[in-house]
Design brief:
Blueprint: H1 2-26, H2 42-45, H3 54-62, H4 68-71, H5 76-87, H6 94-108, E1 113-120, E2 123-129, E3 141-143, H7 147-155, E4 159-161, E5 184-192, E6 195-204, H8 212-262, H9 266-280, H10 284-304
Helix pairs in contact: 1-5, 1-8, 6-8, 8-9, 8-10, 9-10
């Protein structure tokens, strides 16, 4: 797990360098402060060279070659790049990472809707949305190949529809989403190490022709954040597995107390926990914790009782 996460971090930094170079060339309006020393300008460190490695980036930062003035520019792209770099070691939860991506994408390309789907167990799960959809976020799922989103996931290619997106032969309607009637649709894959991680969708209420630069920029964002999403997803899975393991231990302990005190078989004790869970509308872990707490109280009272 640890080695895989480090590989993902290395891939993200490689994409980070390429994207910084792309943005640096595409944004001539950035105002660079006058230099009082002879350090090489940041543009030279980030010349179009796809072979720049993480070690070069670390050395550049170590000698402060990236001006604070450059990091303070108001352009959201530079701000996001700095945010990604500074938070790589923070290991933010998956939903925080995804919401940050939605906010950034929506600020770069003005749109009425932005969704992020994450690939989980061969299904695309809606995990983040610009517009609040608590009833479908984390619940809406689609197969790879289903709808425009699934087509993009299957072919690893962006799709841009300028108008009447709902009439596209690949379109899949979901009654839960009012965005299904929006006119324009842009969908790009999120990729890490040549593997699909998810899909980013942008939608517009009115017809909108996405320029080549918009498509390229959102696609590049997909490459950049792919490893970060994958790291956060793996961390979430690992946390869930640890939680499930801890719950099993608690349930086993509670079940053992029932077996001992009530002289029940293992199956009978489990069924009793299950029944109490349903009747009290509590999880089996919560019921087991109550049994364990009761057992600990009885032991404490026994120690305090006069001999």
């Amino acid at each position: 797990m640890a080695n895989h996460i480090f590989d993902l971090m290395d891939a993200t930094f490689d994409s980070f360098l390429r994207f910084v170079s792309l943005v640096h060339r595409a944004l001539p309006r950035i105002k660079r402060p006058a230099r009082a020393d002879k350090r090489p300008p940041f543009s030279e460190l980030l010349a179009p060279n796809d072979n720049l490695r993480l070690t070069v980036w670390v050395r550049a930062v170590s000698v402060n070659s990236m001006d604070e003035g450059l990091l303070r520019v108001e352009d959201p792209a530079i701000g996001f790049l700095h945010q990604i770099g500074s938070r790589m070691a923070a290991a933010d939860p998956l939903h925080e990472v995804l919401q940050r991506i939605v906010d950034f994408v929506a600020s770069v390309v003005k749109c009425d809707s932005c969704f992020v789907y994450v690939l989980e167990s061969k299904e695309l799960v809606l995990r983040a949305s610009k517009n609040p959809h608590p009833e479908v976020v984390d619940r809406l799922k689609m197969r790879v190949g289903q709808g425009i989103t699934g087509w993009v996931a299957e072919h690893l290619q962006p799709v841009a529809v300028a108008s009447h997106a709902f009439q596209d032969s690949r379109f899949q309607s979901f009654n839960e989403l009012p965005e299904d009637r929006y006119e324009a649709f842009l969908s790009v894959p999120v990729i890490s190490r040549n593997k699909l991680v998810g899909v980013i969708n942008l939608q517009h209420r009115q017809p909108h022709t996405h320029s080549q630069s918009e498509i390229q920029l959102i696609s590049t964002i997909g490459f950049l954040v792919g490893a970060e999403i994958e790291r956060a997803r793996l961390e979430a899975e690992n946390s869930q597995l640890s939680e499930e393991l801890e719950s099993r231990k608690v349930i086993e302990r509670g079940k053992g107390i029932l077996q001992r005190d009530l002289r029940l078989s293992e199956e009978e004790a489990y069924l009793m926990l299950q029944k109490q869970s349903r009747q009290r509308r509590m999880s089996m872990r919560e019921v087991a914790e109550a049994i364990i707490l009761s057992e600990e109280i009885k032991r404490a009272q026994g120690k305090l009782a006069p001999s």
